[in-house]
Amino acid sequence: MKKSVSITDFMDAFTKMRPSNFTYEGLECLYNYLIDFERDTDTEIELDVIALCCDYSEWDNLEEYKKSYSSINSIKDIKDATTFIPIFKSNRFITQNH
User: Fold this and answer.
1) Which portions of the chain are predicted below pLDDT 50?
2) What is residue 3's predicted lDDT score, i.e. its pLDDT?
3) Is 14 left (phi over 0), alpha (psi -120 to 50) or beta?
4) Which of 2, 30, 63, 97 is 20 to 30 Å from 69 by CA-CA measure?
C-alpha cells in the first residue's frame, strides 16, 4: 500500500525526526528533486527520513564541502562526482553522499 506524500508531509516528517539535518529551503529543494527523480525514472521512493539523511547532506557553501572532500575544487567537480541540488537564492546546496 502506497501513500503520496505532499511537501507538507515531507517537511513534517523531517521536523519530527531530524529537525537539524536540512534547512526549510533545503527540504523544499530535496523534495522537488526526489519528485522529479520519481517522475523521470518511473521509480517510487519511500519516505524514510533516516535513509534520506544518510544519503544526502546540505552544505553552507563550497568551502565547507571542501573541508570534507579535499579533492574537490569547484562546483563543477562536485557535479562531476555526485548529485548536486542547488538551494535557490543562496550559496547552499545538497549533495548525495558518496
Assistant:
1) none
2) 79
3) alpha
4) 30
Sequence-ordered alpha helix ranges (H) in the chain = 7-17, 24-41, 49-55, 62-68, 75-81
- Report the relative pairing of strands 56-59 and 93-96 from DSSP bridges: antiparallel
How many CB atoms are closer than 10 A to CB 25?
14
Q: Where are the domains of the chain?
A: 7-96
Query: Which three three-digit cell numbers place residue 43?
Result: 521509480
Unique residue bearing C-alpha cell 579535499:
70
- pLDDT tens string 6-32: 999 999 999 999 999 999 999 999 999
